[in-house]
Design brief:
The chain has 305 residues and is an alpha/beta fold. The protein folds into 2 domains: 56 residues; 176 residues, Leucine-rich repeat, LRR (right-handed beta-alpha superhelix). It is 32% helix and 25% strand. The protein is built from 12 helices and 15 strands. It has an 8-stranded mixed sheet. Strands 4-3-2-1-5 form a 5-stranded antiparallel sheet, covered by helices on one side. The protein has a two-stranded parallel sheet with strand order 11-13. A hairpin with a 2-residue loop joins strand 6 and strand 7. The longest helix has 17 residues.
Length: 305
């Protein structure tokens, strides 16, 4: 079930086997589909229409797509075992799951773009969940980076042009992209000024952040402790346009910082930090560098940009 509001109006959308039911002030409308998959697609499509019409979701984002899982393999992949990912892909392929088929197509020595595109269109709901029903203005807000047949990184970047009447809500964009079945094992996020704050303002209870291992912070704002707190598995952090953090992280072992206009200011506790890479777009202050080396039990490397 999903609930939405717009001003004083309210809508409730429910999927019941082969039917979707929409309840609002004007009454109830029931639509019967020929099978459960068709009902699921219609359900997602109706949600997309509501979001495009500026309705706001008032219930938690729930991906109701039921996918086959193998707990032991999934746990190994989440722990960083890439060999387990290949085994899992074969496991899916043996069971006729389109996720396995797409992963194999994308890891082929010479990937067939037409086959990939055809599979992504015909089995979009199984591969990308609710994201498959959203239009271009949503997809233009992020880029999928693939590795070993699966989405390995999602780069969120605010995009707008004259063809967009309205920019889609940042929280919904991030949840749709992160909850896509093919993004189940994503390890890296890149976020700009527009998409950095939803991590702690909107996604704090979202399980999709639980296994993120790396973040590229491509924003001029400080790297806030609130963002780091929502990423429990974080191990690598790259600050591309700021050199200031307002807090540390217990598991980060590698930190890459770019120094341009701001001074280097790494605040907080970083007990696991072992590598610090300082990319200098201007001469680095010797005293600052000495202070960093004295404070952290880490290898410090200076790189001239």
């Amino acid at each position: 079930m999903a609930k939405f509001s717009r001003g004083e109006e309210h809508v409730e959308l429910v999927r019941e086997d082969r039917a979707i039911v929409e309840r609002a002030a004007f009454g109830e409308a029931r639509r019967e589909l020929h099978d459960e998959r068709a009902a699921l697609i219609a359900y997602y499509a109706r949600i997309a229409e509501l979001l495009d019409d500026r309705w706001t979701r008032t219930t938690p984002f729930v991906d109701e797509l039921v996918v086959v899982e193998e707990p032991a393999l999934v746990a190994a992949i989440d722990a960083g075992d890439r060999d387990a990912l290949a085994v899992y892909t074969d496991w899916l392929l043996d069971r006729g799951d389109p996720r396995g088929e797409l992963a194999v197509l994308r890891t082929a020595p010479a990937p067939d773009a037409r086959k990939i595109s055809s599979l992504e269109k015909t089995r979009g709901v199984e591969l990308f969940g609710p994201l498959s029903t959203l239009g271009r203005r949503w997809r233009d807000q992020f880029t999928y980076v693939w590795c070993d047949g699966w989405v390995d990184e999602i780069a969120f970047h605010y995009a707008t042009d004259d063809t967009y009447v309205l920019t889609p809500p940042d929280k919904e964009v991030m949840q749709h992209a992160l909850h896509a079945p093919m993004a189940r094992f994503v390890r890296w996020l890149t976020v700009d000024d527009w998409y950095v704050t939803p991590i702690w303002e909107c996604l704090g209870d979202c399980t999709c952040l639980a296994h993120i291992r790396g973040v590229r912070h491509d924003a001029v704002t400080n790297c806030f402790a609130e963002m780091l707190d929502e990423l429990p598995a974080l191990e690598e952090l790259e600050l591309l346009r700021t050199s200031i953090t307002t807090g540390g992280h217990p598991r980060v072992r590698r930190l890459r910082v770019t120094i341009d206009e701001d001074r280097l200011d790494i605040r907080g506790e970083w007990p696991s930090l072992r590598t610090i890479e300082i990319v200098c777009k201007r001469p680095v202050d010797a005293d600052q560098l000495a202070a960093v080396r004295a404070r952290f039990d880490a290898e410090v490397t200076v790189i001239s940009a």
